[in-house]
UniProtKB/TrEMBL annotation:
The keyword Ligase applies. Pathway: Protein modification; protein lipoylation via exogenous pathway; protein N(6)-(lipoyl)lysine from lipoate: step 2/2. Pfam families: LplA-B_cat (PF21948). GO terms for molecular function: ligase activity; lipoyltransferase activity. GO terms for cellular component: cytoplasm. SUPFAM superfamilies: Class II aaRS and biotin synthetases. The keyword Transcription does not apply. It comes from the Bacteria. This is Lipoate--protein ligase family protein. PANTHER family: LIPOATE-PROTEIN LIGASE, LIPOYLTRANSFERASE 1, MITOCHONDRIAL. It comes from Amycolatopsis dendrobii.
Amino acid sequence: MPSGSEVRAEFTDPAENLAFDEALLREGPTGPVVWLWRNPVCVVVGRGQRIAREVRVAECARDGVPVLRRASGGGTVFHDPGNLNVTLVLPGPVPRPLEMLGLVMSAAVEKLGLPARIGDRGIFVGDAKLCGFAVFRTKDVLLAHSTLLVDTDAARVGAYLTGPPPDPKPLDSHRSKVASLLEHGVRLPLAEVEDTVRAAAAGLLGPLPPREPTAGELERQRALLWSRYEYPEWHAEGRQRS
């Protein structure tokens, strides 16, 4: 496999983060790419989900919590600075799209001293979900990303997401009990948690030297902001600007 890299990029706006996440896929890297990032408080729904079925819209509006849409599938997630996002981009056809992400995140969780179990689209410790997974792919490149609850308060997650609907649909989120590293007794600075994830990824993928975003990735981010992530109808209904 060609050599990989870790992108070091920080954006303060959730739309910029989601656009850059997709830009890493669209630029078609020749080797593995890892990106660690965080969002301010927001709710992010999956590509084909309906906001009314997933989100407590009135509570989000009351508290000024934006609701955004990402390009990958999977369920709705609550983001805040205590939730570390891990993006993994892999070139070439990948027959088991979540396998490498699951290996990286379970290795990281075990390095943090917790018994990791790969379950339904995520990592569980006991009966509580610690990491959630989602994927998005083109013909030649796979993007798989994970959340990792570092110190996010589980009560805040439930405050903005709906419970299981009485009439489940195929694209609805599968709600699970969640608990953060902190709630499992792991009290580490965020930088140490990030270094643990980096070490787990490098152990499985080889050296991942840090680098700045490329000009192509930033240009792709700008284009995606225009067509999707700064376009209200993308977030509301999944329709992009043409």
